[in-house]
């Protein structure tokens, strides 16, 4: 509960940017409540006049009654206008504040370390950005004016009740502490289920996102039933928590209403005796009953909002959890990049582990000269991709240093480090936009000529020209309207247009056929020319011309040299190489 209150208070940091509109909305709400507070009293005046006329046997005072009716209509119009204006202004405040909150979450995600996404499902993170922010937005939209109106309405209604009759007022306000006690008990029981409901919703989004991404694989292996069972389990958990939270919070309204009805009954009976004794007029009793309604109605509105508010409270905690995550730290004063980058890369006694209990890379040292092509080979789990992650500063080394042109990358800004690299990955990533924009992703201000030139360098220009609309053809959301090889060539074109100083090719040809491999190799040869290049390859036949081959096993470089020298040495690389041509070879020997 304390964490929820702290998170809700932090929302004010977003609202205060629009405190002018917020204050005006509150003032209009105060005015509307004040106008509404005198309405029961004014409504009681013509009733009292009519009852007095009838009691005295006089003719009804139609002039006075009509004048009061006109006054009542004026009050109603004024109240409605002020209430509408307050809601309009508050809506603008809330929507602009939520836009700022979404912006901050988006910027925060860009600053989070890669390790955060290794431990959190994409769908769960997405749920915080969408569902949780929507829950907060809806709650603020519905509740701000309602809560202010409720508080002020109760205060003014109670004040008017004391002005009219103290005894009846004391009887009527007993419903307030009773309702508060009931609300506190119900909220304390239901809040835990609202938190679990939001967590379960994040799990559901994560589950759906993951399995929709691998939909073709699920169909291929006939895992529909198991996937459906898993979905049912997560969905059942969400349904269970949703039912418990809604059912418990739903008890608030009838219980609070019950206290109001008891107050009605007690006040009506007592007020009748006061009228008979002549100490209270009929109009004032009618006004007192209306004031009880003005106390009960806002309390009922707030109790109806209890479920929305509790859901928003749980969502607010989840939102600020991600905003409070530790960011990838930068140096207070980063070393600036030199004007000319040669591309010399040095690993000096590098050690790294994802967890302290299990070291992954140990005492890794090597040097790559400018313009050299370095191939990194080894069995699965040897640390090849981890080495690249360290080079790109997706993770920082545990000890030792990685230097580019004798500058420690930890002394540089991460964005400066990554600006030196171009990457072509095994899993080619394209987004839902035109082919031209997918290539231009490597250099956002690239001209049309540069886009076409990059495509020609990557041997993909001819393919693009054969497609409908050419460079303006849209890649669909799953990038399924182009082949795997074509996607790979497009990512090479993207790397070309960025004009990187250092190129990383992570198993870029491992998933294509021999013909496309030759085409991709030819494109990569053009891109690698004159650049320092790191190549991770499972097909050892593709790296024979590499200037340096690093053989990794269990996080260490166990051999290094050229293709011919490593074969002549007859060590691990020689066994690894021949295992790809000899079915009896042991890959991990």
Key words describing this protein structure:
589 residues, alpha/beta, ABC transporter transmembrane region fold, Rossmann fold, 6-stranded mixed sheet, 4-stranded antiparallel sheet, 64% helix, 10% strand, membrane, ATP binding, ATP hydrolysis activity, nucleotide-binding
Strand order of the largest sheet: 6-7-8-3-9-10
Determine and state the CATH class of the largest domain: Mainly Alpha
Query: In angstroms, what is the radius of gyration?
Result: 36 Å
> What is the domain total for the residues?
2
Low-confidence stretches: 583-589
Mean pLDDT metric? 80
* Strand-pairing-aware structural class: alpha/beta
Keywords: ATP-binding, Cell membrane, Membrane, Nucleotide-binding, Transmembrane, Transmembrane helix, Transport
GO cellular component, one term: plasma membrane
Pfam family, one: ABC_tran
Protein name: ABC transporter ATP-binding protein/permease
In brief:
By secondary structure, this protein is of the alpha/beta class.
């Amino acid at each position: 509960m304390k964490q929820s209150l702290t998170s809700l208070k932090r929302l004010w940091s977003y609202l205060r940017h629009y405190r002018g509109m917020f204050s005006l909305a509150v003032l209009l709400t105060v005015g509307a409540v004040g106008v509404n507070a005198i309405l029961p009293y004014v409504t009681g005046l013509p009733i009292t006049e009519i009852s007095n006329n009838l009691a005295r046997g006089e003719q009804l005072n139609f002039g006075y009654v009509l004048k009061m009716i006109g006054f009542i209509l004026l009050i109603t119009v004024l109240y409605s206008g002020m209430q509408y204006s307050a809601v309009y202004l508050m809506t603008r405040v809330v929507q602009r504040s939520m836009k700022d909150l979404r912006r901050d979450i988006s910027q925060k995600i860009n600053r989070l370390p890669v390790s955060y996404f290794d431990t959190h499902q994409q769908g769960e993170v997405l749920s915080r950005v969408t569902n949780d922010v929507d829950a907060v937005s809806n709650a603020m939209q519905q509740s701000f004016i309602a809560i202010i109106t409720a508080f002020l309405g109760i205060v003014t209604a109670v004040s008017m009740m004391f002005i009219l009759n103290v005894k009846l007022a004391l009887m009527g306000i007993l419903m307030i502490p009773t309702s508060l006690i009931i609300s506190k008990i119900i909220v304390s029981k239901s809040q835990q289920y609202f938190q679990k409901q939001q967590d379960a919703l994040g799990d559901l989004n994560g589950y759906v996102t993951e399995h929709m991404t691998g939909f073709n694989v699920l169909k291929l292996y006939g895992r529909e039933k198991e996937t459906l069972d898993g979905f049912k389990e997560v969905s059942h958990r969400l349904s269970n928590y949703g039912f418990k939270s809604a059912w418990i919070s739903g008890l608030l309204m009838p219980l609070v209403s019950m206290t109001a009805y008891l107050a009605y009954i007690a006040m009506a009976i007592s007020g009748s005796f006061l009228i008979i004794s002549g100490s209270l007029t009929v109009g004032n009793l009618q006004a007192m009953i209306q004031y009880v309604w003005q106390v009960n109605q806002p309390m009922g509105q707030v109790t109806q909002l209890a479920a929305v508010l509790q859901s928003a409270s749980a969502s607010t905690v989840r939102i600020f959890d991600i905003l409070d995550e530790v960011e990838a730290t930068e140096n207070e004063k980063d070393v600036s990049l030199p004007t000319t980058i040669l591309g010399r890369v040095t690993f000096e006694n590098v050690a790294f582990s994802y967890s302290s209990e299990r070291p992954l890379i140990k005492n890794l040292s090597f040097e790559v000269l400018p313009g050299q092509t370095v191939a990194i080979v080894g069995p699965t789990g040897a640390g090849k991709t981890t080495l690249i992650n360290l080079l790109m500063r997706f993770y920082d080394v545990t000890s030792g240093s990685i230097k580019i042109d004798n500058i420690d990358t930890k002394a540089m800004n991460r964005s400066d480090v990554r600006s030196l690299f171009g990457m072509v990955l095994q899993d080619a990533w394209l987004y839902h936009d035109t082919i031209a924009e997918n290539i231009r992703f490597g250099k956002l201000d690239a001209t049309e000529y540069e886009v076409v030139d990059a495509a020609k360098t990557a041997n993909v220009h001819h393919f693009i020209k054969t497609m409908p609309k050419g460079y303006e053809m849209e890649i669909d959301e799953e990038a399924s309207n182009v082949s795997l090889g074509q996607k790979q060539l497009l990512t090479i074109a993207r790397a070309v247009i960025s004009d990187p100083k250092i190129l990383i090719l992570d198993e870029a040809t491992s998933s294509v056929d021999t013909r496309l491999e030759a085409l991709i190799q030819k494109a990569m040869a053009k891109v690698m020319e004159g650049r320092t290049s790191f190549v991770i390859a499972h097909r050892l036949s593709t790296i024979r011309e590499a200037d340096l081959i690093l053989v990794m096993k269990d996080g260490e470089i166990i051999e290094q040299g050229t293709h011919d020298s490593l074969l002549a040495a007859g060590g691990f690389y020689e066994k690894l190489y021949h295992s790809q041509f000899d079915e009896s070879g042991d890959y991990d020997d």
